[in-house]
């Protein structure tokens, strides 16, 4: 299943099921080419927050006018992300937390927490949508922009976004990263 989740945790839709051999990228390509409703839901310059499994469809998102954000990827010869890239990656991961929390809530339903018998395969799409609708209706939002607590978390993340790594400065200024044999 592919889930479309708003920043507050409200589930717009669940698409699928898809075969297990399909990865996020191939599922997304199929959805973008067959689902015209997505363009009705999204506007140009909307930010699509995705995980690393979507890296192969970045061009398709950009062609549709969306700004795609995903956690950072290391270049081939890099051992770690730069401080700025790591900070931005943490910010994106924090925003993606809402999607992962929805999936955790979803799997609390006993039927979906275990292996599902194949006799339910024809109805699995309907069943997942029913559970998502129940979660939307009866569970509190995951993020509330009017909550003082949530505002404080957002402000802390923004404050830390441009912060430089003091450990990195210490290591580079004292040449602690050099090996001596």
Report what the structure shows.
- The chain is mostly helical.
- It has one domain (2-145).
- Helices cover 49% and strands 8% of the residues.
- The protein contains 8 helices and 4 strands, in the order E-E-H-H-E-H-E-H-H-H-H-H.
- Strands 1-2 form a two-stranded antiparallel sheet.
- A hairpin with a 5-residue loop joins strand 1 (2-5) and strand 2 (11-15).
- The longest helix is centred in the middle third of the chain and has 25 residues, at 83-107.
- It is globular.
- The chain starts with a strand and ends in an 8-residue tail after the last helix.
- The mean pLDDT is 86.
How many strands, what sense, and barrel or not for the largest sheet?
2 strands, antiparallel
In N-to-C order, the SSE pattern is: EEHHEHEHHHHH
Q: Trace the largest sheet across and list its strands.
A: 1-2
Q: How many domains make up the 3D coordinates?
A: 1
What proportion of the residues is helical, as a percent range? Answer: 40-55%
Give the radius of gyration: 20 Å
Shape: globular
The class by helix and strand makeup works out as mainly alpha
Distance between the termini: 53 Å
Number of strands: 4
- The chain-level mean pLDDT equals 86
- Treating each run of at least 4 consecutive H or I residues as one helix, how many helices? 8
Work out the strand percent: 5-15%
Low-confidence stretches: none
